[in-house]
UniProtKB/TrEMBL annotation:
It holds the Pfam family NADase_transloc. This is NAD glycohydrolase translocation F5/8 type C domain-containing protein. InterPro entries: Galactose-bd-like_sf, NADase_transloc. Residues 18-93, 129-161 are annotated as: Disordered. The lineage of its organism: Bacteria, Bacillati, Actinomycetota, Actinomycetes, Propionibacteriales.
Length: 321
């Protein structure tokens, strides 16, 4: 510096106040010496002549922090020192669509729905019909005409004419015995006539006293028909005054159907108050004989009754022509 003092870390010299790095000012030129007046008698000494020293200027106070508190600056830029710290952001792929095996769940769900639909069609698509079985082999007897005739000819298989009808609607019924009329819980007089097996009302029934195993009901059609389906409601399917008479009477568990040509098919029943049908090979007949082969015990409790009942009978076929 101009004053020769040692430099510090500030922007000004601590001794003379000159900005650090600025060129030093040139010293002022020496003043011309003035001629001394001639005084003969004045004994006052004359001051020596020479350059006049410039007045000392005090530097401005340094307001910068002490040297030990000021951070040293580097001549090169370092991002680790000059950039503010940052935080890690969330995973930018967090909101992306779910990938991988997620689609497999929907595929499995769709397949399960299809399987369920197939099962329901198989269970409910039969309209509650069973199929007659061969008494000797146990195989299904609901065969096609070609299967019945090894030669492949269906000429001997009866077909009937017209629409399929419930031929029991116009048939007559012969029964071994009929229970007397009773008064129901609602005060109504109830009869149990054989014709009520074909009146289309499950709440009415033919009923006979006791265990009817071995007894027969003969159905005579109004005209010969070709039959391919038979069935019945195997008990007294009536409810009145909050009482269900189906479990309070005997229920039929099995019967044998016999046709004019001697063909016999056996039908078994579940204990439920609904029409239970069975397919049979097409057979032309004028009469059907229903032989009761098994029944349940009588109903239990105060409302139990020792009667065997049939609420409805169905015989599906066409007129023989």
């Amino acid at each position: 510096m101009a004053c020769g003092a040692e430099l510090g870390v500030g922007r000004f010299c601590l001794n003379c106040g000159h900005p650090i790095g600025a060129p030093a000012p040139a010293p002022p030129p020496p003043a011309d010496p003035a001629p001394a007046p001639v005084q003969a008698a004045d004994p006052t000494p004359v001051p020596p002549t020479g350059p006049v020293e410039a007045p000392r200027v005090e530097p401005p106070p340094d307001k910068s922090p002490p040297p030990d508190e000021r951070p040293a600056r580097s001549s090169t830029w370092d991002p680790r020192d000059d950039l503010l710290p940052y935080e890690e952001v969330d995973d930018p792929t967090a909101d992306d669509p779910v990938r991988g095996w997620a689609w497999a769940v929907w595929v499995a769900f769709a397949v399960a729905l299809m399987v369920l639909a197939v099962v329901l069609i198989r269970v409910f698509g039969t309209d509650g019909d069973a199929t007659a079985a061969d008494p000797e082999t146990g195989a299904s007897s609901a065969t096609t005409p070609a299967e019945e005739d090894p030669s492949g000819s269906a000429s001997d298989v009866p077909r009937g004419i017209g629409k399929r009808l419930d031929l029991a609607d116009s048939a007559t019924f012969k029964v071994p015995a009929t229970a007397p009329a009773t008064t129901d819980l609602d005060g109504t007089l109830v009869a149990y006539e054989a014709s009520q097996m074909a009146d289309g009302n499950p709440a009415t029934a033919w009923r006979t006293a006791g265990d009817a195993t071995g007894q027969q009901v003969v159905i005579t059609l109004a005209e010969p028909g070709v039959i391919n389906r038979v069935g019945l409601i195997n008990g007294y399917a009536k409810q009145v005054a909050g009482v269900d008479w189906y479990p309070n009477n005997r229920r039929i568990l099995s019967v044998t159907w016999t046709f004019d040509d001697g063909t016999e098919v056996e039908q078994t029943f579940a204990e439920r108050p609904a029409m239970q049908r069975m397919k049979v090979p097409p057979v032309e007949t004028s009469t059907l004989t229903v032989t009761i082969t098994s029944v349940t015990p009588p109903g239990s409790g105060n409302l139990g009754r020792d009667y065997t009942a049939i609420s409805e009978v169905t015989v599906i076929g066409r007129r023989a022509g």
